Amino acid sequence: MQFQLNTDSTIQGDERLAEVAQTIVTGALGHLTSRLTRVEVHIVDVNAAKGGSDDIRCTIEGRPEGMQPQTVTHSDTNVEAALRGGAKKLRALLDSEFGKLGRR
Q: For the chain, how many structural domains are there in total?
């Protein structure tokens, strides 16, 4: 599985953040990572320098083998919380989609 992190100009997208993001997302997805070809994470500070609550938006796109890409978005107060929330949402979505395939 490939992992790609994208950030906007207000968030420092360095190697440390990439490692943290990959650890959080792959940890939350657990056994589902073997069914994915690629995961793309986009982190954006919606209000930039203004601040505010829930202004970090994390969009995660998971690309399951042989299926359409699945995308979720989660906003939170900091990057790690946004990553955790987005990863949990993606896991729930993929569990549902794979469950539907299993019933066919």
A: 1
